Amino acid sequence: MTAPELTHPLPRTRRRLTPALRWWWMFQRISGVVLVALIFTHLFYNLILGGGVSQIDFGFVAGKWAAPLWQWWDFTMLVLAMLHGMNGMGYLINDYARSKRSRGILHILLGAATAVIIVLGTLVIFTFDPCPAGANPQNLNVPLCQELGKL
């Protein structure tokens, strides 16, 4: 089995950048820089201060998301990463989709997938229960659950 051979992208036309395209171009550059800072801080906190990958479990996440700062941090990473990725994929769609109809359909699917992932991720981050009823206490952050009065 071989990989399909890609055709060359469509030739660039000399179009003027609309304000929306200019805004997305700027967003792509700025969000990339912000994402690098957010991701390296996230990795430093989880891997260095958190004791390594083996220490990351439900209790670790529960303790981390008990602080609103980390909820908003992860929410910001989620939204920026999804919009950054959507914008990048949009450029690829514009370069490789041959017909106007296929470009439109692919952009709609991409926007829908991005919206669904942002909504689901937001629900997980902000409705996360650090001490679910009936959970094994070995898997929970016991001091946090005792502080919340759920253990």
Automatic annotation (TrEMBL):
Q: Which UniProt keywords apply?
A: Heme, Iron, Membrane, Metal-binding, Transmembrane, Transmembrane helix
Keyword Membrane carried by entry: yes
Coarse class of the protein's main subcellular location: membrane
Extract the GO molecular function terms from the UniProt entry. Answer: metal ion binding
The residue ranges crossing the membrane are 21-45, 72-93, 105-128
Where found, per UniProt?
Answer: Membrane
Highest taxon, organism lineage: Bacteria
Cellular component, GO annotation: membrane
> One Pfam family of this protein, by short name?
Sdh_cyt
Q: Mind telling me which SUPFAM superfamilies this protein's record contains?
A: Fumarate reductase respiratory complex transmembrane subunits (SSF81343)
Please give the name of this protein: Succinate dehydrogenase / fumarate reductase membrane anchor subunit
